[in-house]
Design a protein that fits this description.
The structure holds two protein chains of two kinds. Chain A is mostly helical. Chain A contains ten helices and no strands. The longest helix of chain A is centred in the N-terminal third of the chain and has 25 residues. The termini of chain A are far apart. Chain B is mostly helical. Chain B is built from 13 helices and no strands. The longest helix of chain B has 35 residues. The two termini of chain B are 41 Å apart. The chains are: A mainly alpha, B mainly alpha. At the A-B interface, helix 2 and helix 3 of A face helix 5, helix 6 and helix 13 of B.
Chain lengths: 200, 349
């Protein structure tokens, strides 16, 4: 076993164990942190596949931003595990069906060679001088520019919709208006009056 | 030196690349930790002088042994674990805060060719490492099982995620004009230009055409490292010491070391992205590591100066600055740079 396979097996073991702990950990914060570890290991595996841009972006976006906000929410929730466990048997048929479907799909992909699904040939190893980021950027802004822009517009619409649907501005909330504060003049706040001094 | 390296190479055999990398890592980390120690002294001295005090002057000549004394004190103190703390995570927190602060140094180019990992996606790696650094704060805040620590963690998470966006956008402008994510190439890109040929290199650096981004990056860097005036995360008048409140001894020291290592990192990065890294400001002096060190010290001095000068921001003001001022400014400048680069006036060919 060469060094690369050893690294792969190490990362894969960590990934599988961390993913298992995501669904078995009793504490939701621990589960979220194991998900972070799983993302990180997946990033490592992508790095082994010479996809350094995707690997680092996975860590940056999912570990650095998405999971931080996720933890933020999970930490503040008061999750009652007993109540959550009550619905276990009623949800089991639905969950089991989805789980089976996912297993089936993964089996189809993983056993692709057996079913003759080799439409996408192995791109082969690229040389050391290839800049992953540059190549990806070139493809995104030339061949795939419309799908890429469409996807970003859809995401933007989703963000705006989420904010518009959930925002309920409180009437009594106060906000600072920095422009008004800077624009204020002495005469708006202060009045100098001329007053003769009192004499006894 | 050559002969020594040859002998070592034959002695270690196939394990030599590993040993050599480890040696290089030590060569970066040991001076860094020393710098961190003396930065704490510099901070106390500089702020002391600004407030017409003397600062620490008891331990050693001119107080120069003060950091060593502080370090020894922290090493020998007992580490107290709160009864209801989540024990495992309680110790993972400070380790993560410190480890990510050190890991980011792998891609820093100190001089021409002097870099541990000269990778093409250096800027991305840096952003990824700084964003992982938040976990140290969040995990420790949650695991301490204390309200103050928890508030600190929440504030830190919100603040760091907000300012990372402005920081990322500022870096997008830098990588647009240098057409590379490699930190060494970004420095090389600043070595050419009309002013550099006249011998006035410092006018060719990125800070001039990207002046708003330079300021955004610097201020976001201060906010990212939770330094004054953005230090609501550990605002002692409100939440004692934020996420560090339950920690003592070495566990506390790790946060402290991490914070100062991050400060130095942000200063080095600002020097590399905007102030030409190791490039000499004028044509008749050679490029060398000394310039990078000088620029870094200048920006570190700004950090200390700001702490001595500005009162702490209120939390909603921090968020307003990040989202309503920096993000729109960055987007505008991104557009502006894009148009500039496509126009005949492009100066970055």
């Amino acid at each position: 076993m060469d060094f690369k396979s050893a690294v792969f097996y190490f990362l894969a073991t960590v990934l599988v164990l961390a993913s298992l702990r995501v669904i078995t950990a009793r504490n939701p914060v621990h589960a979220a942190l194991f998900l972070v570890l799983a993302f990180f290991s997946a990033g490592g595996i992508w790095m082994l596949l010479q996809a350094e841009f995707l690997a680092i972006v996975l860590v940056m976006v999912y570990v650095g931003a998405v999971m931080v906000l996720f933890l933020f929410v999970v930490m503040m929730l008061d999750i009652n595990l007993e109540r959550l466990r009550q619905g276990f048997w009623s949800y089991l048929p639905l969950g089991a069906t989805i789980g089976l479907l996912m297993t089936l799909e993964m089996a189809l992909v993983l056993a692709g060679r057996y079913y003759g699904l080799e439409a996408m040939p192995d791109p082969g190893a690229s040389g050391a001088g290839v800049n992953n980021t540059k190549e990806l950027g070139r493809l995104l802004f030339t061949d795939y520019v419309y799908p890429f822009e469409l996807a970003s517009v859809i995401l933007l619409v989703a963000i705006v919709a989420a904010v518009a649907l959930t925002k309920r501005p409180r009437k009594e909330s106060k906000a600072q208006n920095a422009a008004a504060q800077i624009a204020v003049r002495r005469n708006d706040r202060l009045r100098i009056v001329s007053m003769p001094s009192e004499k006894e | 030196m050559e002969i020594l390296l040859q002998t070592l190479q034959t002695f270690f055999g196939p394990a030599w690349p590993l040993v050599w990398t480890l040696l290089k890592i030590f060569g970066i980390i040991l001076p860094l930790v020393l710098c961190v120690a003396y930065l704490t002294l510099a901070e106390r001295k500089v702020i002391g002088w600004m407030q017409v005090r003397i600062g620490p002057n008891r331990v050693g000549p001119l107080g120069l042994l003060q950091p060593i004394a502080d370090g020894l004190k922290l090493v020998f103190k007992e580490i107290v674990v709160p009864t209801k703390a989540s024990t495992g995570l309680y110790f993972v927190g400070p380790a993560m805060a410190f480890a990510t602060a050190l890991a980011a140094w792998a891609v820093v180019p100190f001089s021409e060719g002097y870099v541990l990992a000269n990778i093409d996606a250096g800027v991305l790696y840096l952003l990824a490492m700084t964003s992982i650094g938040i976990y140290g704060v969040i995990i420790s805040g949650w695991a301490s099982n204390s309200k103050y620590a928890f508030y600190g963690a929440m504030r830190s998470a919100a603040q760091m995620v907000s300012y990372e966006i402005a920081m990322g956008f500022a870096l997008v402008c830098v990588l647009m004009v240098s057409a590379s994510l490699n930190l060494s190439d970004i420095v090389h890109g600043q070595a050419k230009g009309a002013f550099a040929e006249m011998g006035l290199g410092f006018l060719s650096w990125n800070w001039l055409p990207l002046l708003p981004m330079f300021l955004v990056y610097l201020i976001s860097g201060i906010a990212e490292t939770n330094r004054a005036p953005f230090d609501v995360v550990e605002g002692e008048s409100e939440i004692v010491a934020g996420h560090m409140v339950e920690y003592s001894g070495m566990a506390y020291a790790l946060f402290f070391l991490g914070e100062y290592a991050n400060m130095i990192l942000v200063s080095v990065m600002t020097s590399i992205f905007f102030l030409g890294g190791w490039l000499s400001p004028v044509g008749f002096l050679p490029d060398s590591f000394v310039w990078l060190a000088g620029k870094t010290c200048f920006i570190l001095f700004l950090f200390l100066w700001f702490r001595a000068t500005f009162p702490r921001y209120r939390y909603d003001q921090i968020m307003r600055l990040g989202w309503k001022v920096f993000v729109p400014l960055c987007m505008f400048w991104l557009l502006f740079i894009g148009v500039w680069m496509m126009s005949p006036l492009n100066i970055w060919k």
